[in-house]
Design brief:
Structural class: mainly alpha
Radius of gyration: 16 Å
Oligomer: single chain
Order of helices and strands: HHH
Largest sheet: none
CATH class: Mainly Alpha
Length: 73
């Protein structure tokens, strides 16, 4: 998933997607610890996607907080 696609998602979907990817990453790590994966690069891809989702969520949270402060003042 490209960063532009992630940015276009609504916040609710972003949260849902983040939770799903976080669980998928945890499962991948556990499976890899038990038996080595055929495609270990999937862990790296999943970790990056989780980070991108979290980055967009944090940016939106910060924007929301800044707008709330501006409207309050």
């Amino acid at each position: 998933m490209k960063f532009e696609d992630i940015n276009a998602l609504p916040t609710k979907e972003l949260l849902e997607r983040y939770r799903e990817e976080k669980l998928a990453l945890a499962k991948l790590k556990i499976n890899h610890a038990v038996t080595p994966l055929d495609q270990p690069h999937k862990i790296k891809q999943s970790r990056r996607l989780v980070a991108q989702l979290l980055t967009v969520l944090n940016n939106r949270r910060k924007d929301y907080e800044l707008n709330a402060l501006k409207n309050k003042a």
